[in-house]
Amino acid sequence: MNRKDEHLLLAKAQQQNPKENDFDAVSFVHQSMVSISDDQIDLTTSINGLNLEVPFYINAMTGGSEKTKVFNQQLAMVAKATGLMMATGSVSAALKDPSVADSYTIVREENPQGLLLANMGAGRTAEDAQKMIDLLDADGLQIHLNVPQELVMPEGEHDFELWESNIRDTIDAVSVPVIVKEVGFGMAQETIQKLLDLGVQAVDVSGRGGTSFTQIENSRRKERELSYLNDWGQSTVISLLEAQPFMDDLTMLASGGIRNAFDIFKAVSLGANAVGISGTILNTVMSEGVDATIKLVEDWKAQLRLLYALTGKATTRDVQKNQLIITGAPKEWAELRGINLYNLAAR
Ligand SMILES: Cc1cc2nc3c(=O)[nH]c(=O)nc-3n(C[C@H](O)[C@H](O)[C@H](O)COP(=O)(O)O)c2cc1C
Question: Which pLDDT score, from 0 to 100, does residue 312 have?
């Protein structure tokens, strides 16, 4: 089977039993007096000049085959109907084989005015980046970092030497905002510092807790001998704790394991400007169709308004200052890494 088609099916299979994850270890300090009225609530946010109506978007998934073209068209219909920003999957396949370019361009055709991000791996050059941006008339570019996936993938890349120079050159060369993202393994302070030093202005920490690409790629290996890497990486909550020192220097984005509006709200409360969703949207589109997914997105928007009100916060910026109590595994991690959780609890 085509690798991209296989990824869709395996990612959907992972959604069958929605897991507990580290968002369950985040809770709020309830305050009984909130001086706010519904008409003050403003869900808008921005990513380096891209203005979003709501603090969540459809994160990178697919393209590169006939089946993924249909799926991308469905995602674009959801994005258009709901006003969500959307990223395509890695556009590399279209540069290697122009006959599959339409599996990506369908997204722009379906939603000519929508905010659209192109996506590529960090092994790709600045020249490739420009071609992908032009192909989709993209408003921004995501560059993904996916070392664990490449190493577990039977046919994966094992040469990562040019990643840093490619990222630096691409940021210099292209005129749209660039987001460097993980693919579900999360980020550590040291990684984020390195990206900042390379000139990166927006980062999606994309952590563990939802889709696991080590698990997906391992199940494509004949002997499935690397299953011990299924849970490799930092959770999204832990990654956002690691990211705390950089909140003023970078546009912070989060994804990985978002199951509902409360997880989005928690990620924003931990400092994310906006939150990406892949697995949950994939599962809803594939199991229930476009209309049910549009309804899900509209429900989440309404629930976010309620959650902003519940914590007395009018804007997304205000939500980022919510008092948070972090317990369990993320607390243990923070203690060992010297990350101060009292700042979040009593701000
Ligand atoms: C089927 C599928 C394909 C994906 N392909 C890409 C990709 O091409 N580029 C990328 O940056 N991330 C890709 N991702 C990773 C997502 O953008 C996201 O980082 C990850 O799935 C974690 O989010 P989730 O738990 O909400 O799924 C893909 C995810 C899925 C489910």
Answer: 98
Of 278, 297, 300, the one to substitute when testing ligand 1's pocket (max ligand atoms within 8 A of C-beta) is 278
Residue 92: the pLDDT is 97
Whole-number CA gyration radius for the chain: 19
The residues, ordered by sequence, that sit 6+ positions from 252 with a Cβ below 8 Å of its Cβ are 202, 203, 205, 240, 243, 246, 271, 272, 273
* Minimum CA distance residue for ligand 1 atom 10: 60
Distance 67 CA to ligand 1 centre (A): 17
Whole-angstrom distance, CA of residue 229 vs CA of residue 152: 9
Domains detected in the chain: 3-346 (3.20.20.70)
Query: What is the rounded CA–CA span in Å between residue 118 and residue 123?
Result: 15
pLDDT digits (tens, 9 = 90+) for 30-60: 999 999 999 999 999 999 999 999 999 999 9
* pTM of structure: 0.98
H and E: helices and strands count for the chain = 16, 12
- Helix axis angle, 279-288 to 66-82, nearest 10°: 100
Is residue 222's pLDDT more than 80? yes
User: With a 6 A CB cut-off, is 121 part of the ligand 1 pocket?
Assistant: no
257 Cβ closer than 6 Å to some ligand 1 atom: yes
